[in-house]
């Protein structure tokens, strides 16, 4: 039978947790995922706007690691980014951390996140600010991901970069549809990230994992400096609609959607993934505890920002961004709400007829929380109580 992440956690998380010391944010996430849209989260009332019917629904946990709640977060985020993105070409740049550094990452997640963001930011703004390449200030939206296609631990940053930047009193586009030479990006990023790790070590701001000594880590960093790193600079995106939807699904949807889970049985969890080597859709089966371990790796710590905005897109630059937008004129694509929602909802496998009025077909709207349950928030796509 098909499965959900909630069913997997209900079946196996207690056994998984008994043999490990887990941080509080992980146990809270697991509890929320198991209780989401159940009586434990309380209930709320929704009704037809014309008064034809009213129904009681269970509340949502709203945890960002819960796939039942992720779709409700995607649409508003996409609409907000659609209004923010400039009407110009954009480029996708990916910065990947070498696999040998992953033990250091597990022991220093928050600090390593910051070092990776810093190295990526300095690399892009420094190169694009150089007249040799562009000589202008771009807009950058950067997001940290820690998962690979099979939920393996794979920290990397996705950066969406404007195909140009603000230069004096005008917008300066990149030349010949070419953002940056990837070898230059790779070399500068590698140097900045390794230097940032060495600086943090000198300040005793990193905890060494058990398998690392000072000498071993120093030797590893020297070896990595001589190796090519995995940095990718994509071809241009000619409009922002597809980019916004892609980012929304990938950045706000969490490491795995329920639609990718194919089965749960005594042999484990079976799920679908896309093989990056040939683009084919394939299946993998993992024991339940092993699968839960992979999901737990990617539960973010509370209060940590995994999406950051730099240059023209930086927080607080709204007036500057508006000036740049005006200078570009009306040639860009306007992302109306209907154009954003349609492809998102078309891909939502959890569409429920219960949230529409059986008489007039209108969407049921939230009325009030029903006292006596948990004070969780009502979901945008609710499940009726039974």
Number of strands: 14
Structural class: alpha+beta
Overall morphology: globular
| Main pleated-sheet profile | 5 strands, antiparallel
Contiguous low-pLDDT stretches (5 residues minimum) are 332-338, 346-351, 380-386
What is the CA-CA span between the terminal residues? 22 Å
Number of helices: 11
Helix content bin: 25-40%
Major sheet strand order: 8-3-5-4-12
Q: What's the overall average pLDDT, rounded?
A: 86
- How large is the radius of gyration? 23 Å
Features:
five-stranded antiparallel beta sheet, 386 residues, disordered C terminus, 11 helices
Which secondary structure elements does this structure contain, and how are they paired or packed?
Layout: H1 5-18, H2 24-35, E1 43-47, E2 54-58, H3 67-84, E3 90-96, H4 102-107, H5 109-129, E4 139-147, E5 153-162, E6 164-167, E7 170-173, H6 182-202, H7 214-225, E8 231-233, H8 241-252, E9 261-265, E10 268-274, E11 281-286, H9 288-297, E12 307-311, H10 318-328, H11 337-346, E13 365-370, E14 383-384
Helix pairs in contact: 1-2, 1-9, 3-8, 3-11, 5-6, 6-7, 8-11
Structure in words:
- With 386 residues, this protein is α+β, with helices and mostly antiparallel strands.
- Helix content is 38%, strand content 20%.
- It contains eleven helices and 14 strands.
- The protein has helices spanning 5-18, 24-35, 67-84, 102-107, 109-129, 182-202, 214-225, 241-252, 288-297, 318-328, 337-346, and strands spanning 43-47, 54-58, 90-96, 139-147, 153-162, 164-167, 170-173, 231-233, 261-265, 268-274, 281-286, 307-311, 365-370, 383-384.
- The strands form four sheets. A five-stranded antiparallel beta sheet has the order 8-3-5-4-12, covered by helices on one side. A four-stranded antiparallel beta sheet has the order 13-1-2-14, with no helix packed on it.
- Helix 1 (5-18) runs antiparallel to helix 2 (24-35), helix 3 (67-84) packs antiparallel against helix 8 (241-252) and helix 3 packs antiparallel against helix 11 (337-346).
- It is globular, with a radius of gyration of 23 Å.
- The two termini are 22 Å apart.
- The model is unreliable at 332-338, 346-351 and 380-386 (pLDDT under 50).
């Amino acid at each position: 039978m098909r499965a959900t992440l909630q069913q997997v956690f209900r079946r196996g998380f207690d056994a998984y947790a008994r043999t490990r010391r887990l941080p509080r944010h992980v146990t809270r996430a697991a509890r929320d995922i198991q209780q989401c849209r159940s009586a434990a989260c309380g209930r709320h009332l929704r009704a037809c706007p014309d008064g034809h019917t009213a129904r009681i629904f269970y509340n949502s946990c709203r945890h960002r690691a819960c796939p039942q709640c992720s779709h409700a977060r995607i649409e508003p985020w996409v609409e907000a980014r659609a209004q923010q993105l400039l009407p110009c070409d954009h480029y996708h740049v990916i910065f990947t951390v070498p696999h040998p550094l992953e033990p250091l990452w597990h022991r220093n997640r928050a600090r390593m996140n910051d070092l990776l963001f810093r190295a990526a930011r300095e690399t892009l703004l420094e190169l694009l600010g150089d007249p040799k390449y562009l000589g202008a200030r771009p807009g950058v939206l950067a997001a940290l991901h820690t998962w690979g296609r099979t939920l393996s631990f794979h920290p990397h940053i996705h950066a969406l970069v404007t195909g140009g930047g603000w230069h004096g009193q005008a917008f300066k586009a990149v030349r010949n549809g070419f953002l940056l030479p990837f070898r230059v990006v790779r070399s500068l990023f590698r140097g900045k990230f390794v230097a940032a790790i060495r600086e943090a070590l000198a300040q005793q701001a990193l905890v060494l994992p058990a398998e690392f000594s000072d000498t071993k880590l120093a030797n590893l960093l020297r070896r990595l400096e001589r190796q090519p790193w995995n940095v990718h600079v994509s071809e241009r995106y000619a409009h922002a609609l597809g980019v916004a939807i892609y980012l929304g699904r990938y950045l706000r949807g969490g490491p795995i959607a329920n639609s990718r889970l194919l089965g749960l049985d005594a042999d484990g969890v079976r799920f679908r993934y896309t093989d990056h080597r040939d683009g084919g859709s394939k299946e993998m089966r993992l024991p339940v505890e092993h699968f839960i371990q992979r999901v737990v790796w990617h539960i973010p710590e509370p209060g940590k920002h995994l999406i950051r905005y730099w240059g023209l897109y930086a927080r607080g630059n709204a007036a500057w961004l508006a000036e740049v937008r005006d200078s570009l004129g009306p040639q860009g694509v306007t992302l109306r709400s209907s154009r954003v929602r349609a492809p998102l909802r078309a891909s939502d496998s959890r569409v429920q007829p219960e949230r529409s009025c059986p008489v007039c077909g209108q969407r049921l709207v939230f009325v009030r929380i029903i006292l006596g349950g948990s004070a969780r928030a009502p979901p945008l796509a609710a499940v009726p109580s039974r």
